[in-house]
């Protein structure tokens, strides 16, 4: 079984007297940095001038250029977009990554696929919250935490595990649970999850359902409410109590339709596609494609994103949400 750690397994003392530089102040950077600070740790932010830096300053944090922060820090957590970590690391972090420092990530992508190759005389570890940055922050403020994964890629000081656990405690993760994994397992499962199920799978499922109803002549507003709006209600129930709780809450008719029709929608063809997608992740083919896409300024990323932005479901959705009080700011 996988190793699990809780509050009493982690000691913040392992980070006392150490300066933690959080590189990047976006989703994860902001959530993690504010939690670390409120846990009494010494945090600085490495960030280029711009909106994120202004936000860090407004939040009362010390914000420096990445290279300056790397120089000052004992612990360097890289929370920059995955596709630019390699270049920023090479130019602004590597020159200051001296013996006994600790290099940290919240996703194993760059280490696992060899985009960053750290020197042998530092610790290289991962603390990866299993939730977006604003949840990392909000749950911490509520006295709770988002679960996290830890992994050790390279042990040099003999303290890598203690540091990973202390950092996980600092961001509030040990209040939930911390699971120990490897860079490979985290990277491959994270990419698979977001591609096949969470992001790619879900949006494609919703779109296919919407298009089917609209093509058959039903009102787009009805289609939106059925296949998108209600999605959250169902997912919330599954999240709280698994399939069982969800099925206890829906009608018997819905449940019979669920168990007999669902496997026809996600059948052999979809499973084969999932296996192929996983193979492309494992072989590095996906990463190669994504890094090359970035090298040519993202033509497919931009075109496909725009096509979805212009989809009828987004127009209808914006209109309907505009009429619902819970979405009014
Ligand atoms: P974001 O895109 O939200 O934030 C990236 C930050 O990096 C921004 O503050 C941006 O600042 C800054 N930045 C971009 N380019 C540079 C540069 N050249 N020099 C200095 N700063 C720069 O990233 P995420 O928080 O989503 O992701 C960070 C890491 O966390 C990734 O490894 C990701 O895989 C991982 N992760 C993310 C999760 C999530 O829910 N988002 C969940 C778990 C892990 P600016 O405003 O100037 O552009
Ligand atoms: Mg991811
Ligand atoms: Mg219904």
UniProtKB/TrEMBL annotation:
Any one GO molecular-function label of the UniProt entry: isomerase activity
KARI N-terminal Rossmann domain mapped to chain residues: 2-181
Gene name in the database record: ilvC
The KARI C-terminal knotted domain, residue ranges: 182-327
UniProt-listed Enzyme Commission number(s): 1.1.1.86
Reactions mediated catalytically: (2R)-2,3-dihydroxy-3-methylbutanoate + NADP(+) = (2S)-2-acetolactate + NADPH + H(+); (2R)-2,3-dihydroxy-3-methylbutanoate + NAD(+) = (2S)-2-acetolactate + NADH + H(+); (2R,3R)-2,3-dihydroxy-3-methylpentanoate + NADP(+) = (S)-2-ethyl-2-hydroxy-3-oxobutanoate + NADPH + H(+)
UniProt keywords, alphabetically: Amino-acid biosynthesis, Branched-chain amino acid biosynthesis, Isomerase, Magnesium, Metal-binding, NADP, Oxidoreductase
Family designation: Belongs to the ketol-acid reductoisomerase family.
Source domain of life: Archaea
Function of the molecule: Involved in the biosynthesis of branched-chain amino acids (BCAA). Catalyzes an alkyl-migration followed by a ketol-acid reduction of (S)-2-acetolactate (S2AL) to yield (R)-2,3-dihydroxy-isovalerate. In the isomerase reaction, S2AL is rearranged via a Mg-dependent methyl migration to produce 3-hydroxy-3-methyl-2-ketobutyrate (HMKB). In the reductase reaction, this 2-ketoacid undergoes a metal-dependent reduction by NADPH to yield (R)-2,3-dihydroxy-isovalerate.
InterPro entries: 6-PGluconate_DH-like_C_sf, KARI, KARI_C, KARI_N, KARI_prok, NAD(P)-bd_dom_sf
One Gene Ontology cellular component: cytosol
Example GO BP: L-valine biosynthetic process
Record text on cofactor binding: Binds 2 magnesium ions per subunit.
Species assigned in the record: Methanolacinia petrolearia (strain DSM 11571 / OCM 486 / SEBR 4847) (Methanoplanus petrolearius)
Pfam families (UniProt xref): KARI_C, KARI_N
Key word Lipoprotein present: no
Protein name, UniProt field: Ketol-acid reductoisomerase (NADP(+))
Annotated substrate binding sites: 251
Residue positions binding Mg(2+) 1: 190, 194
Pathway: Amino-acid biosynthesis; L-valine biosynthesis; L-valine from pyruvate: step 2/4; Amino-acid biosynthesis; L-isoleucine biosynthesis; L-isoleucine from 2-oxobutanoate: step 2/4
Obligatory cofactor(s): Mg(2+)
